[in-house]
Design goal:
Strand order of the largest sheet: 7-8-9-10-11-12-13-2-3-4-5-6-14
Structural class: mainly beta
Number of strands: 21
Helix content: 10-25%
Radius of gyration: 21 Å
Number of helices: 4
Strand content: over 45%
CATH class of the largest domain: Mainly Beta
Oligomer: single chain
CATH topology of the largest domain: outer membrane lipoprotein receptor (LolB), chain A
């Protein structure tokens, strides 16, 4: 028996080709850090000074049933000090109204459902262009997929590949994220997010289509922000307050208690992935830990008992720790 703890977000097997095509010999290339910085600046629509805009997107998530669920995403962006974001699905709504260094949130549930957490992560892809203090970028490698030449970088964490980021060699835009999966039964799948259908907007290059395993979106309109009713930017009275900044430094797990595989679950050969919702507090501890995807009561309990003791280097905004919501996957797999 072996225990694996992984994050999984796979949608497809991809054929990769390491290459150095003709015509690229001697062409100046950015180093890894410069490439990451350029890609963030190229596609980040939440930086100070960007022209106000309105965005509407169609979103699709994998719910509890066999079929995906479709909904709507809307963002009215006046500035980093005034914005309004809505995610709407049948039976679910999340509203965030942004102010200076914070946003106020109202939603149907008191936790973030797993599909919404995945969708939020997909929408916030620019944050994952950061290299955290515990990470180090590897060398640039060129790959080719569907005729597109890409510059790819491995981001390593404690000696292992945490993710690979690939950028369009012509524009510098992020086109793919790949996350190695060590989970048994994955058949060697690589977790991946793909960004495509880029269109210019206010000096940026914005992907209008993003595909992921459990959450994808298609931007249907991106237009200058017309005059809006000021009441739209007034938060509901029962909203909760969360600190916020355009480019936070993401939290990092620094102390993990290994979950124990319950004997009863092993006897019954129960296995699967438990997904937990949690809040990473300013001191790095976890609160409000809630099961949002069950693998059975025994495995759920084992995951909870371990994760409540985990500790993080907290997310920071301009050097100050802030509370954030997160999703944690804990997988239990038995060796055949």
């Amino acid at each position: 028996m072996r225990l694996y703890i992984v994050r999984v977000a796979a949608i497809a097997l991809l054929t990769l080709c390491s290459c150095n095509p003709a015509g690229t010999q001697g062409k100046p290339r950015l180093d890894a850090v410069e490439l990451l910085k350029k890609a963030a600046e190229l596609s980040d629509l939440r930086l100070p000074g960007i022209a106000p805009y309105a965005m509407e997107a169609r979103v699709r998530v994998q719910g509890s049933g066999p079929k995906p669920v479709e909904g709507k995403y809307r963002l009215l962006w006046s500035s980093e000090k005034q914005w309004r974001e809505e995610i709407i699905f049948p039976g679910y709504r999340r509203l965030r109204v942004g102010g200076e260094s914070k946003y106020l949130q109202q939603r149907t549930t008191n936790y973030e459902p797993m599909p919404i957490s995945d969708l939020t992560r997909t929408l916030d892809f620019v944050s994952f262009l950061q290299v955290l203090p515990e990470e180090s970028p590897g060398k640039l490698r060129q790959r080719k997929q569907d005729g597109t030449l890409m510059d790819c970088i491995e981001i390593r964490y404690k000696g292992s590949v945490a993710r690979e980021l690939c950028f369009d060699a012509a524009t510098g835009a992020l086109v793919r994220e790949l996350y190695p999966s060590n989970q048994p039964g994955s058949l060697g799948l690589i977790s991946v997010r793909e960004y495509s259908e880029f269109k210019p907007w206010a000096g940026k290059l914005v992907p209008h289509k993003v595909r992921a395993m459990r959450g994808s979106y298609w931007i249907e309109s991106l237009t200058p922000l017309a005059a809006q009713d000021p009441a739209l930017f007034t938060p509901p009275a029962d909203a909760t307050v969360w600190e916020w900044c355009p480019r936070p430094l993401r939290a990092t797990l620094v102390d993990r208690v290994q979950p124990h595989y319950p004997e009863r679950a092993k006897t019954k050969r129960e296995q699967g992935t438990v997904t937990l919702y949690a809040v990473i507090e300013k001191d790095g501890s976890l609160s409000n830990v809630t099961v949002v995807r069950s693998a059975g009561s025994d495995l759920d309990h084992a995951a909870l008992e371990a994760v409540i003791h985990w500790r993080y280097r907290p997310t920071t905004c301009d050097g100050a720790a802030v509370r954030v919501e997160t999703a944690i996957d804990v997988s239990f797999w038995m060796q055949s």
